[in-house]
Known about the structure:
By secondary structure, the protein is an alpha/beta fold. The protein has 2 domains: 8-37 and 304-412, Aspartate Aminotransferase, domain 1, CATH 3.90.1150; 48-300, 3-Layer(aba) Sandwich (Aspartate Aminotransferase, domain 2). The chain has helices at 3-9, 12-17, 44-57, 67-86, 101-113, 135-144, 161-166, 190-199, 219-222, 247-252, 287-303, 305-324, 351-360, 373-379, 395-411, and strands spanning 25-26, 29-30, 32-33, 95-98, 122-126, 147-151, 172-178, 204-207, 226-230, 241-245, 263-267, 270-273, 329-332, 341-346, 363-364, 366-368, 384-388.
Amino acid sequence: MNAQTSAQAFDIRRVRADFPLLARTVHGKPLVYFDNANTSQKPLAVIEAVDRHYREHNANVSRAVHLLGEEATTAYEGARDTLARFIHAPSRDELVLTSGTTQAANLVAYSFVLPRLKPGDAILTTTMEHHANIVPWQIVAARAGATVKAAPIDERGELIVEKFIELLTPEVKLACVTHVSNVLGTVNPVRELAKACRERGIPLFVDGSQAMPHRPVDVQALGCDFYALTGHKMLAPTGTGALWAKKEHLEAMPPFFGGGEMIREVKFSGTTFAAPPHRFEAGTPNIAGFAGVAAAIAYYDALGFDAVRAHERALLDHATAQLREVPGLRLFGEANDKEPVISFLVEGAQATDLATLLDLEGVAVRSGHHCAHPLMQFYGVPATLRASLAFYNTHEEVDAFVAALLKVRRLLR
Ligand code: PLP
C-alpha cells in the first residue's frame, strides 16, 4: 500500500474512539495529548484485557496446577510468544520479560558486561541517549575501573556514524545506541552500526523504547545483540517490557536477581538456575500487564504499521511546517529520518512556563531535560519543550497546539 492509500484507509475517528481517555477535557478544554514519548494512551482492548485478567483469570504463574494458574501462565507465556513474533526473534526463549527498558539495560549491565569488564575497558554509547542507556553502564564501569565513551552527534541531531565506528576500539566491550531518540526523534542507522560492531566482535545493545511505537522492528534484520523495549510507550500497561538477546549471550549470563521462579534446585550447598529466559525472571511478574501487552500488539497488528506510519508522517510534516512559522522558535532535531517527536524552545520564554500555560489550554507537552542531560549539554540549553505525536493524534490537534502556543507566547512577553 502506498502512503496515500494507507492514509485514506486510516479512519482516525474510529481509532480515537478506541482510546477513552482522549475524550476527556483538561481545565475545561478538549485534551490535546502530545506527550506520547513519555507514555502512550491505552486502547480499550488493552484496558479490557487487564480488567478481564483480574476478573476471570487471576492467579500466579508457573506454580499452581489449578485451572486459574494454568490460565495465568498461558496469558503470560502467550505474551512472550506474541512479543517474540512482533520483533521477529528467532526464538521465544530469547525474550526476557522485564518491567521496561530500564530493567533490561540494568540486566545487561550487571549480568553481561560487568563480568567481562577489566580496568581500562570501555563501553561506547552516544550523546543523544536517555539516561537509561548511560547510567547503568557508568555504574558497572566504575566498579570495574572501566569508562563510558560517547559518540558525537551533529547540530541536526544525527549521529556521526564514522565517529561511532572510529570509537569501536578493542577495549570496547559493549556498544549502545538508541534506535530512535526520545528528544530529537532521530532514527539511528542500527543495521550499519551493528555491521561495524560485528566486524569488530563488539556486541551492540539497542534501546528500542521510542522505535517500537512507530515502526516494525525485526531484530534479526537489524543484526544487533540486544534489543530493549518498554510496553507503556506502545499502548501497553506500565511496568511491562522486554529484553531480546541472542541465545549465546543469555546462556552465558549469570542471574541478576535471585528468588523464586528462576531456579532449578536450591540447596544450602549451592543453587542451580533455570535456563534462560526464566533465569532472569525472579519473583512474581506483572501478569495482568503482559495480558495487556498481547492486546496492544494485536491492536498494532490490526491497524498495520503502513497506516500508522503514513498518518504520523503527515502529522509530523504538518506540525513541523507550522512551528517553523512561529517567530523566535528554535527546533532541535532535524534528522533526515525522524519519528514524530519535536523538541523546541521559544525565544524569551522558559520551557516550563510555556508547558504550564499550554496545559491550561488543554495541551499536554513535556518540558525539561527528558532524561537526556548530555544532549541538553550538547545544545547548551537546560531544557526543551517536546511535542511527541502518536497515530491517534489529528491535524486539528496540531492546529490547536500551535494556536495555543502563539497565544501563551504572547502572555509571556
Ligand atoms: N530509553 C528511552 C529512549 C526512553 O525514552 C525511555 C523512557 O522515557 C527509557 C529508555 C526508559 O524507559 P522505562 O522508564 O519505561 O524503563
